[in-house]
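Lab notebook page, bench 4
Experiment: in silico fold of construct C2
Operator: M.H.
Input chain length: 66 residues
Purpose: comparison with the prior construct
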Amino acid sequence: MSGWQVSGDAPSFYQRYAYAIQAPWTDELILQAGCKNGDRVLDVACGPGLVAGKVNEVSKASVRGE
């Protein structure tokens, strides 16, 4: 093992810190991807959907998570 184990509740830790780390660049990522109204975006196995959850808000594209 690498010794980099999260103690306690890893999902809660991820929710608490990943959102804060990724939030500043999420909107720009969506805009750079060229998502726009009428597009359909498929989120496949991309974690808890941090970016996918904002696609519609930023670009008006529709999102489906699998």
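Observations: The mean pLDDT is 83. The first helix runs from residue 10 to 32.
Next step: discuss at group meeting.
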